[in-house]
Amino acid sequence: MSPDELAQMQNTNKLVQGGGGKTFISTNGIADFKGAAPKGSVYVEFDVPANSLLQGGKDGWFKMIGPNGKWGQTTILLAEH
Asked: How many domains does the chain have?
């Protein structure tokens, strides 16, 4: 997450949507992001409801679909819960 996204999250107490309405999350900790996140990114831990997560490509990887997410992704999330 960028420092600006972190500031926005702290000011609003809401998760900032990623590109395409998706936010990528790992429950494995910082090791998943080392080397993958752009230079200057910050590592942030936060709580979200488990039923708001879609399984990602690896164990412990998830994505959240926000209000600007694509219809197909939102449909998958709703179908799972």
From this structure: 1
Whole-number Å distance between alpha carbons of 18 and 46: 15
Per-residue pLDDT of 29-45, as tens digits, reads 888 887 778 889 998 99
Residues 6+ apart with CB under 8 A from 15: 9, 23, 46, 48, 64, 66
Query: What is the residue range of 27's domain?
Result: 3-80
The predicted model scores a pTM of: 0.70
Q: What is the DSSP string of 41-68?
A: ---------GGGEEE-SSTTEEEEE-TT
Task: Measure the CA–CA gap between 48 and 26, rounded to whole angstroms.
Answer: 12
